[in-house]
Amino acid sequence: MFVHFGVNTFTDREWGDGTESPSIFAPSRLDPRQWARVARAAGFRAMILTAKHHDGFCLWPTATTTHAVTASPWHAGTGDVVREFVDACRAEQLRPGLYLSPWDRNHPVYGDSPRYNDVYISQLTELLTRYGPLAEVWFDGANGEGPNGRRQQYDWPRVWAAVKRLQPDAVVFSDAGPDVRWCGNERGVAGDPNWSTVDPSRVPAPGVSGPGVIDALQHGDPGGSVWRPSEADTSIRPGWFYHPAEDDRVKTTDQLVNLYLRSVGRNSKLLLNVPPTPDGVIHEVDAARLLGMHGRLQALFSTDLAGGSRQVSPDGRVWEADLTAPSPLGFVRLSEDIARGQAVSRYAVSGSDGATWFELSRGTTIGYARIDRLDNARAVRKLRVSIEDAVAPPGPIDISAYAPS
Ligand code: FUL
Fold it and tell me: Which of 234, 240, 274 to mutate to test the pocket of ligand 1 (most atoms within 8 A of CB)?
């Protein structure tokens, strides 16, 4: 789960311009534990907070600027949202992650590249050294003009080296990874095909645009030399930050389930943003939709009707599974053993009623998860996955099957 929270929560804006007074940051009952409880109850495993967004307001006490919680009325300037967030994650067994916007519309040295890069590394170092292990550090490539039109040159190799040195187990997200890549849109929809391998020269740095960049982010590269799976980010509401006018535009349970199928079901990870209100809590509508999504996913995917899979051709191109009892099917879930990489580029799934075989679905890449929704009323006794094309010897292919919803 992604959590956008900061001065924009209080100004009702999406991007602050950096002139916001810290005095507006005054959540009446900030409760990161409630965020974490909702996230956990809804099946999330990690949570990522906007420690600083483009407006430059820091949610933790920092030595790098006075534009921070220390200058706010919240807890008379003694509070630390990042600390409460990380503590709440740990209390609810969620892995914490942080987003530190490189674009900073408040800091006076933004645009003076070497000086701001030092500030940015100092902020990052505070976040990476004070709060224990982080699961993910999240970077976007936003790069607006600084004072007098000055253009900031970010030092990404230095940023990534700092994370690798101070949090070696954290996954680094950006357009250019190095560990996980943006999926290429903010709708949370992964590409099809979706390779976890990439050719790193196609997206050399965060924020680069140009022909082929979005295509590279969406699809990855079958011949890519680097393992950089896609993460699909989107918001449960139209905006990333909370706006009261969007209380009746929260994604429905059906929309959230479809989102899961188009991200997780296409070999991506889903990062779903849920923005707390100015009170500092997740709105009841959002919480109800998240629990609805979780309930639906549990109902759809808790009973696997296929009892494992077995290889039936020596070249690893045909895999079969017997169903525990003949049944019409609503979904099939395929999985490659990604410890061995990703190989399949085209497959077909067919079912047998015991007498004849009929095609149920076909597709491109599989990866760690491929979920196909089926339109099938016939009772299936046996499933067969045929690998029609692959970039390396395929297998093993795990097969799960689920009843219609
Ligand atoms: C983008 C930002 O400009 C948006 O405000 C939001 O934070 C999104 C997740 O990343 O780069």
Answer: 240
Question: Strand runs (DSSP E) across 36-124, as ranges?
Answer: 46-52, 95-100
Tell me how far CA of residue 315 lies from CA of 92, 120, 369, in angstroms.
45, 52, 22
- Read off the pLDDT of residues 288-300 as tens digits, 9 standing for 90 and up: 999 999 999 999 9
**How do residues 222-240 score in pLDDT, each as one tens digit?**
999 999 999 999 999 999 9
CB of 140 closer than 6 A to ligand 1?
A: yes
Q: Domains (ranges, CATH) in the chain?
A: 2-301 (3.20.20.80), 306-402 (2.60.120.260)
How many alpha carbons lie under 13 Å from residue 47 in its C-beta half-sphere? Answer: 32
What is the pLDDT confidence band of residue 140, given thresholds at 50, 70 and 90? very high
pTM over 0.85: yes
DSSP H or E segment with residue 327: strand 318-327
Nearest-atom index, ligand 1, CA of 14: 5
The residue contributing the CA closest to ligand 1 atom 4 is 240
233 lines ligand 1 (CB under 6 A): yes
Residue 86 CB burial class (10 angstroms; 0-12, 13-18, ≥19): buried
Query: For 8-50, what is each residue's pLDDT tens digit?
Result: 999 999 999 999 999 999 999 999 999 999 999 999 999 999 9
Distance between alpha carbon 264 and the CA centroid of its chain, in Å?
Answer: 10
